[in-house]
Amino acid sequence: MPYHRIACIAFVAATVAIVSQMSSVLSVLEPKFAEPIPNVTIPVGRDVSLPCVVSNLGNYKVAWIHIDRKMILAVHKHVIARIPRFSMSHDGQKTWLLNINGVRASDKGIYMCQVNTDPMISQVGYLQVVVPPNIVDDESSTSSVAVREGLNISLTCKAKGNPEPRIVWKRENGFNITVDRRKKVEKQHGNVLNLTKVSRADMGSYLCIASNGIPPSVSKRIVLDIEFSPTLVVPNQLVGAPLGTDVTIDCQTEAYPRPISFWSFQEFRNMIFSGPKYHIVTDENGYKTHMKLTIRSLSPEDYGSYRCVTKNSLGEAEGSMRIYEIPRPFQNPKSTSGLLNEAAHIDLNKKHLFLLLFAYILTSWPFT
């Protein structure tokens, strides 16, 4: 084989070897991701940093993209998105940080870190933003709800948050909730609380409590008013009392809306007010009222019929009671020992009288 042909073959072989070695070196120096982007869960309002760790970056550039927004956020150290809360930082080695200040619910989603190689390389991480529950007043029942007794009513409570909040209903006073006439429960789940054929016993404050595992839980207080016409009970319709004493009569009423209540004497001819002669006490407890009237130092004119009257916008009720005269009680009888002493004293007087009579007979009788 001629010498020049051997030299040519040797040159080609050496060239191939050099190219192969250069390709191997270049392959080793290609950018690659040293660590995956972690999935991060962060409460709303906090700050967070997403890391993208790249080896052998060289002259290539790192870019961050928010897939959900379809938005390029940053390229290298320059922020592209016009969101002041976003910034970019580099630790001087391999880690490129996408920083988000005051995280909002809209920031959640998939974030991509991309290197502009050919072909492009990328990796993604997920940012989960958790939001504590918040009750939406515009989509919930008002703070005060009124319904007529015997009708049905639905109370609504809507809440937002991430994860989706759960709604629990309770009564503020700790009583059971009457879902229908045959079922009573301590608490009820769901956005809507349905109450069937409500009664005055269902009146009160109901708490809608929203929670999703992210503190704090929140609640809304809804006052349920049951409207009904007045009812009235008179415990004692006949009351006896002697002249000169004080006497108290009373009646018990139930009504809502709040009624106007008063006392009168002798068939409404005289409405009674507190003063030197009369003392009126009214104790209110929710829709219940206990009315008491005390007449001081009874005179003959005070005996007769008294009326307890209560009225509201739905109706009225009244009850009557009569005060009549009874004699004053006798004085307390004397004790047994006192009676015995008096008896003994009377007995001695009888003996003394007998002796005097006997002496008189002896001195005046004519003896012969």
TrEMBL record:
UniProt keyword annotation of GTP-binding present: no
Pfam families in UniProt: Ig_3, V-set
Subcellular location: Cell membrane
Domain of life: Eukaryota
Signal peptide: 1-22
PROSITE patterns given in the database record: IG_LIKE
Residue ranges the record marks as coiled coil: none
Gene Ontology cellular component list: neuron projection; plasma membrane
Record flagged with keyword ATP-binding: no
Principal place of residence: membrane
Domain spans labelled Ig-like: 31-116, 133-219, 230-324
Keywords annotated in UniProt: Cell membrane, Disulfide bond, Glycoprotein, Immunoglobulin domain, Membrane, Repeat, Signal
PANTHER family per UniProt: CTX-RELATED TYPE I TRANSMEMBRANE PROTEIN, DPR-INTERACTING PROTEIN DELTA, ISOFORM D
Designated name of the protein: ACYPI006654 protein
Organism from which the protein derives: Acyrthosiphon pisum (Pea aphid)
Gene: ACYPI006654
